[in-house]
Write a structure and sequence with these properties.
2 helices; two-stranded antiparallel ribbon; alpha+beta
Length: 68
């Protein structure tokens, strides 16, 4: 493998790394509870997806109380 003859400067390294960053996720608003959620996912707060109940959130609360 080839090796560089001289070390790259900090400025050159930082110029190259400007595009290596984490993007902020796009959030939408839940139609039921109006909380920000990731699009195309079931709302973790109310359990609705596209105005339909998908997950029964009361069952999870009962399980959490039994474990404690």
């Amino acid at each position: 493998m080839a090796h560089p003859k001289r070390q790259h400067s900090v400025q050159r390294r930082r110029k190259r790394q400007t595009h290596q960053k984490v993007d902020v996720p796009n959030l939408s608003v839940c139609s039921q509870c109006q909380k920000p959620i990731i699009p195309h996912r079931v709302c973790p707060f109310c359990g609705f997806y596209k105005d339909k109940p998908v997950v029964d959130m009361t069952v999870k609360e009962k399980k959490d109380k039994k474990e404690k």
